[in-house]
Structures
1.
Amino acid sequence: MLTAELQDITKDYFQPAIETATRVLDHISLAIAEDDTIAIMGPSGSGKTTLLNLLGTLDRPTSGKVFRDGISVEQMDEKKLAIVRNRFTGFIFQQHLLLPQLTVLENVLLPVLPVRDKLFKEEAGERALQLIERVGLKNFLYSYPARLSMGECQRAAVVRALINRPKLILADEPTGSLDARNAAMLADLLAELRDNYNYSLVIVTHDPEVARRMKIQYRLLNGKIQVNI
Ligand SMILES: Nc1ncnc2c1ncn2[C@@H]1O[C@H](COP(=O)(O)OP(=O)(O)OP(=O)(O)O)[C@@H](O)[C@H]1O
Ligand SMILES: [Mg+2]
């Protein structure tokens, strides 16, 4: 089964200043299989974030269909959508968005808070410790984000994105604030953790070194998507 799929999607944004709608995504189809790692490149304004928002069910298309695990997003009620976002999707952004008043451990456990399943919560606690160690932050478990470097914060954000074992990781320029070495390290980490955590990975990036580490590279341009070869 596909983790996510876009079928013949268009997305128009209405621009009040010129009283017209502009088409950002123009009949795009995209299939994301369970073991896919995908890079999406393209110039600023080409619709990369728009496309991630559709995959993450944060926004709806103007026309066309979005599927998550074979189910049309259109048919999901708010409760189901909340589960898809919180349990089945991990988001990583350019800025780590860790809360400054919480420790690293508390930050990575935030997505577990709304989960009711007690066993799942316990497992998530153990998973947090394992993952934090795996990404090299064991010594920072009880530190506040202000003490961490940008690269370390971003690795904590990766752990937070993985903590609920999502089926899909959506990363929007996750290495945009990092130097070349840390950027490559983070991309490798996201690709490697996939072996244990079995998510599909979609990463928006301007960095060819990051894109190169993904199995498939797409380019968005003028509303269309094409495989980058
Ligand atoms: N909520 C919105 N309302 C109106 N226009 C929007 C909205 N969100 C995005 N746009 C427009 O849609 C286009 C695509 O935006 P998007 O953020 O998806 O681009 P992007 O490829 O992620 O760019 P960047 O690389 O700069 O992040 C831009 O022209 C943007 O101004
Ligand atoms: Mg963007």
2.
Amino acid sequence: MRYDVSIVGLGRIGLPLALSFADRGLRVLGIDNNPERLSALREKRMPFDEPGAQELLERVDLGLSERVGDAADAQSIVLTLGTPAFSHIEIDMRDIRSALDDLLPVLHEGHALILRSTVAPDTTEFVAGYLEKHRSFVVGEDVFVAHVPERIAAGRFFEEASTLPCIIGGVGERSGEVAAKLFEVLGAPIVQTTPVQAELAKIWTNILRYANFSLPNLLMMDCEQHGANVFEVIDLINRDYPRGGMAQPGLTAGTCLRKDFAFSEERSPAPGMLLAVHRVNETVPRFLVEGIKRRVGKLRGVKVAVLGLAFKAGTDDERDSLAHKLVRLLERELADVAIHDPHVQTPTQSFDEAVDAADVVVIATNHPEFCGPAALRAIRSQAREDALVVDPWNCFGAAQVFAYTTEIQALAAPAS
Ligand SMILES: NC(=O)c1ccc[n+]([C@@H]2O[C@H](COP(=O)([O-])OP(=O)(O)OC[C@H]3O[C@@H](n4cnc5c(N)ncnc54)[C@H](O)[C@@H]3O)[C@@H](O)[C@H]2O)c1
């Protein structure tokens, strides 16, 4: 075989993983059916931001192909395809199914098929059953199937890939051991478990975060209705209290958090709780728009500058960002919406253009560029004198979701 490992799906997870394996001396074949992505990689150009990836891409050798069937040219085949959720609250496995169908005719004894994508409980057993049904393999003896979920945070791939415990759920006798042989080169501690426990551990890692952030978001809305300040209430909850603590509010979304809860909810015996969590987080843009209207009046012809489109600070990832939803809702109010984000690929206005003479400035992403006195000074000098600043992330330390620039101008002073 010409390769040690094939990575199918060179996205935000697959590509850094392929580069990490190549960096450890493995012969790696990367496969993606997106021709633009492949040509960028052939030109040694990263198609998205991930700290450290461009340097690795320039340094290591990576075989490339657009045909999933070519993956059989490696002993280990890792699937890092997207697994979105249908609006039916159900995993959308079409990319996984399509890759499996391409692989079926070319798989042979000794191959290991590893699901790195996030999947609904029992998907790994489904994949093993699919191979057994269509090719009469005994999984765990002839071929190997395992779920090795990815839990890194975008932007921290290379530091976390080698430190976060690597959970492995192998099917049958030896799949876990075979998958561990591949993943141990990354250097992270290996934890063996069953396939369904690996699946549950991954989706509930994200569900925990999604639910954890929904509480301060709900509290933010509750405080508004009582005329209370959410940041002061959170401080009262957390201060010197020894049991747990409340997170901070924000626009909680992103491609993983927004869909992984559905993989539990699709077959939940207690349906509804996570849907409510989802509804809370999804309501934050509407809450911000209503809060602006309460203070400014009708938004028709009002200039609103939205700072940030990415769902996460310091990244260029806009997938499933609530900033887009916020923009859509503002546009439906006939506001004059101006947008600035220095990180994303979607073209946006410059900071100066977006903020110039704005009546309202919303910090939609807590990018470092938008936090601290210098950013507030820039808003103060370019937006209207009495502009409303909407800062659910507390980027300026004003500890007010809605505040007029005149109220918080002291925070714009340069540090002495
Ligand atoms: N992005 C994250 O931060 C993150 C973190 C942990 C886990 N995950 C999980 O990892 C998986 C991958 O996520 P991602 O963000 O890398 O997705 P992505 O959309 O960035 O990447 C998927 C890639 O697969 C390619 N592709 C799709 N169908 C294909 C096919 N049939 N053949 C070949 N290539 C195909 C696409 O062109 C794309 O490049 C998902 O299950 C996701 O939930 C993502």
